[in-house]
Amino acid sequence: MKPSREKIVYVCQECGADSPKWAGQCPGCGVWNRMVEETRRPATVAKSFQTPAAPPVRLRDVDISAVSRLQADWSEWDTVLGGGIVPGSLILVGGDPGIGKSTLLMQVAFRLAAQGRKILYVSGEESGAQIKLRANRLGQPPEQLYLFCETDIEAVLDAARNLNPDLVIVDSIQTLSRAELSSVPGSVGQVRECGAALMGLAKNHGPAVVLVGHVTKEGVLAGPRILEHMVDTVVYFEGDRQFGYRMLRSVKNRFGATHEVGFFDMRSDGLTQIGDPSRLFLQDRHIGSSGTAIGVSLEGTRPLLIEIQALVAQTHFGLPQRRISGLDYNRSILIMAVLERRAGLPLGTQDAFVSVVGGMSVTEPALDLTVAVAMASSFRDIPLDSETVFFGEIGLGGEIRGVSQPERRVQEARQLGFKRCLLPAHNAKVLAHIQDVDLVGVDTLGQALALCFPEFKKRN
Ligand code: TYD
Ligand code: MG
User: Fold this and answer.
1) pLDDT at residue 50, as a whole number
2) Which of 72, 205, 209, 287 sits at 20 to 30 Å (Cα–Cα) from 398?
3) Under 8 Å CB-to-CB from 367, ≥6 apart: which residues?
């Protein structure tokens, strides 16, 4: 019997039930709007008759000497990827539109092509002339950098097979589509289909593939979330557009550590890496004003000094306001509640504004103590000692809990000239050998505040 052609089915994203016709409600589990178009290719040979491509081998016999990562010699980029791009891997670079993803990848392409690697840059968003205009800001394009303006996935796959490059950059996955599917480019079905096709290319033919994915605030393009499960590495390019600097953060990496961050500065001639971000965050510091505190957060393996600013002011109308930026909202509210109940600060009648200076966003609980002392400093209108850094996690009972890797944090503070460090007592005990920095261990939030503001009596 002749195998039938490819057919299109609609698959539920929740339960996996399929249907030959599109339906608003899944016939299997009854959820709405989760049916996604998919192509099904018939298997020509029954599975049991296929010969396996390669027999199983002993793990210890697998040869990895041939695997050499593609290093762009751009340390911030290479580090985030765990030491360079692994050949045959699939990488997703996500980020808001306009943040600089195309610029970043064009620069990576320039650097790799300059080493003689063959790079195929596929753009479905911009014309050749537009890309050339951007490239002109970056310098003379190297010989081995090829450009292909196309949105049809089959054409892209053909071009990649013919050219046989080391790296394919697809900018962006949302613009690619498979003609057989009737859904529009960027829809979940198309993104998944094209993502899977490019994964096939990477795994079978060897080029590493970098996919650019847009993420919108409204989550209109659901595609990238699905892609996150498919790809080997997911990095996000973030930053506040008001500030020139950008952050590259890895959230998944099968070939390296996650949560690594790299810092770049967007200039008129492209992105420049920033090797010393702590200094950048502290450069506009206003010493002597109340409500600011310096903490040390650990981003991946990298300690970063971060300034937290708080403003606490009497509420004059209606409910007290809370505005938190760059920190987890619920965590900040929790710290305020602990300050009120365990340290006697009546914040319930106060408006509170807390932000991380420089537009960074941090989620680490190690900054709890920094936030707490910044708020207390603002409430009492007494500046904190400018040569002290603060870190520690705060528990609901007002206790200060130890944090991971205290030594790296203290060393970073020391390198930037800080003289004193207020940290969890538990951490201070194991760091007794550190010279030059005065380590003050605290067990409770009350103790910490008593040390910061000796003129006030602690309640607990
Ligand atoms: P782009 O890389 O096109 O962003 P994305 O691909 O994420 O949508 O670039 C976005 C912004 O960067 C754009 O507003 C212009 C700016 N830019 C510079 O400031 N300097 C430069 O050298 C380049 C190429 C772009
Ligand atoms: Mg772009």
Assistant:
1) 47
2) 287
3) 295, 297, 306, 308, 327, 391
Token pair of 215 as six digits? 């993420």
**Under a CB-based contact definition with an 8 Å cutoff, are residues 118 and 165 in contact?**
yes
Tokens coding 205: 């033919």
Ligand 1 atom closest to Cα of residue 97: 8
> Which CATH number characterizes residue 219's domain?
3.40.50.300
pLDDT at 95: 87
Work out which ligand 1 atom sits closest to the CA atom of 99: 7
For residue 382, give the 3-state DSSP assignment.
coil
Based on the fold, state whether residues 288 and 436 are members of the same structural domain: yes
pLDDT digits (tens, 9 = 90+) for 400-425: 999 999 999 999 999 889 999 999 99
**Residue ranges of the alpha helices (H) in 125-276?**
128-138, 153-163, 188-205, 223-230
Segments forming the whole domain that contains residue 14: 7-40
Q: Is 258 in the same domain as 288?
A: no
- Angle at the Cα of 89 from the Cα atoms of 86 and 91, rounded to 5 degrees: 105
Specify the 3-state DSSP secondary structure of 380: helix
Using a cut of 0.85, tell me whether the model's pTM lies above it: no
Maximum Cα–Cα distance across the chain: 91
Average confidence score pLDDT of the chain: 87
- Give backbone dihedrals phi and psi of 305, rounded to 5 degrees, phi first: -85, 130
Query: What's the number of domains the chain is made of?
Result: 3
What is the four-CA torsion angle of 181, 10, 173, 207, rounded to 10 degrees?
-90
Same domain, yes or no, for 14 and 100? no
Assess whether 324 and 228 both reside in one domain: no
Ligand 1 binding pocket mutation candidate from 101, 103, 242, 264 (most atoms within 8 A of CB)? 103
229, amino acid identity = H
- Ligand 1 pocket, 244 CB below 6 A? no
Token readout for 331 is: 């965590």
Residues 197, 213: Cα–Cα separation, whole Å:
16
Looking at all shown ligands, the one closest to residue 245's CA atom is 1
Characterise 381 by phi-psi region: left (phi > 0), alpha (psi -120 to 50), beta (else). Answer: left
- Assess if residue 57 is contained within a domain: no
